[in-house]
Structure formats: C-alpha cells, structure tokens
Specification:
Elements (H helix, E strand, L loop, with lengths): L16 E11 L5 H10 L12 E9 L3 E10 L9 H5 L4 E7 L3 H17 L5 E7 L11 H10 L3 E4 L8 H11 L34
Parallel strand pairs: 1-3, 1-4, 4-5, 5-6
Antiparallel strand pairs: 2-3
Family: Belongs to the small GTPase superfamily. Rab family.
Protein name: Ras-related protein Rab-5C-like
Organism: Limulus polyphemus (Atlantic horseshoe crab)
Length: about 210
C-alpha cells in the first residue's frame, strides 16, 4: 500500500516537506484507469468497475526519503462524449498517466493520441507515464512490450506494464512519477482543478490550502 500512514514518523512529527501535485489519468474507456486508481488508493480491485462519468477525484500520498508527495488524482472518463472535458482536468496538471489495454491495439493507438494532445496543450514540464494495463492477460496480448517501450523512449515517457487485478507495478508507476517530479518550492500547485469534483473514494480527506512543500 502506498504510504497513507507513512507520511508521519512514529512520534507524530511530519517527515520532511510535503509536496502536492495534480495528476490526471487519460485513456480509452475500459482500459482500467479507475481500477488502477482504486488499487493505488485503497488497495482494492473490483472485477466489474462501473464506467466513470465525467471524472472522479481521489488523493493518495507517496513517501520518498525526505518528502511526502501528495497526489490529487483526476480519473477521467474514457468515452468519446467526455473528450471535450479532458482539457479541464489536465490543465495545470504536473503529471499524467496515459493508460492502454495490452490486449487491445486500438487503445494503444488512442493512447498515442492522448500523448500528442498532452505534449501540445498541457503544461510544458508535465511528467507523462504510459501504462500498459491488464498485464495479467499477457498470454492474450496484442501490444508488444517492446513496441510500447520504444514508443515511450522516443517520446520521453515513463513506461510500465501494470495490472490493477494483481497490483503489478501499480504503486511503482506512481512512485516513479513522484521521484521524477520537481520538489522545489514553486514546483507544485495547491489548485486541485475543476471546482465540481467527482466521486471521492479516498479516506481521511484533509485538503491543504495554498501551495505545497510547507
């Protein structure tokens, strides 16, 4: 479990500084975006996950050596009718995970489109990770690992194959993003995004006001 309680030392003192970052998940419908977030935030997996409507908002922390990274996560809907809403969620985001399904070639093509859109319209320094989800179905794969890895390297993306079902690399991909994000005083934003929030699945929501790294 990515340290929900690990942000504090045993004596109750906060561990180093706290940085808050906005992270958005993008990808075709049914690739497992919500399942990845649910696994990361609550350590759970539901075989039948309802489609996200609009976007869902969750938070989770990752603890590095001297910094606690708090992710404000926007899990966006993958259906085409919600595409026009996406800029509202990735605008101002410091990180993005673009998800595809390794057993569906079309979702990989769609992921490439999302990457191009982020590179063109999102923050210039956004950290983008590519997640090939449903790695537990590797025997049915239609997207080769090497193909996706080569694409990620060409575009400067973090890349991992993940499985929300088995938890493979789920915490690892968020941790890799946390390590790559800048931790200076002005690097992260305290703005959580659209004022109208979606379903909140996280526990102990303590929203900090203002910026990060206090």
């Amino acid at each position: 479990m990515a340290g929900r309680s690990g942000a504090q030392r045993p004596n109750g003192a906060m561990q180093g500084k706290i940085c808050q970052f906005k992270l958005v998940l993008l990808g075709e419908s049914a690739v497992g975006k919500s399942s990845l977030v649910l696994r990361f935030v609550k350590g759970q997996f539901h075989e039948y996950q309802e489609s996200t409507i609009g976007a869902a908002f969750l938070t989770q922390t990752v603890c590095l050596d001297d910094t606690t990274v708090k992710f404000e996560i926007w899990d966006t809907a993958g259906q085409e009718r919600y595409h026009s809403l996406a800029p509202m969620y990735y605008r101002g985001a410091q990180a993005a995970i673009v998800v595809y399904d390794i057993v569906n070639q079309d979702t990989f093509s769609r992921a490439k489109t999302w990457v191009k859109e982020l590179q063109r319209q999102a923050s210039p320094n956004i950290v983008i990770a590519l997640a090939g989800n449903k790695a537990d179905l590797a025997n049915k794969r239609l997207v080769e690992y090497e193909e996706a890895q080569a694409y990620a390297e060409e575009n400067g993306l973090l890349f991992m194959e993940t499985s929300a079902k088995t938890a493979m690399n789920v915490n690892d991909i968020f941790l890799a993003i946390a390590k790559k994000l800048p931790k200076n005083e002005h690097s992260a934003s305290g703005v959580s995004g659209p004022g109208r929030r979606g379903v909140d699945l996280s526990e102990n929501q303590q929203q900090s006001s203002g910026g990060c790294c206090k």
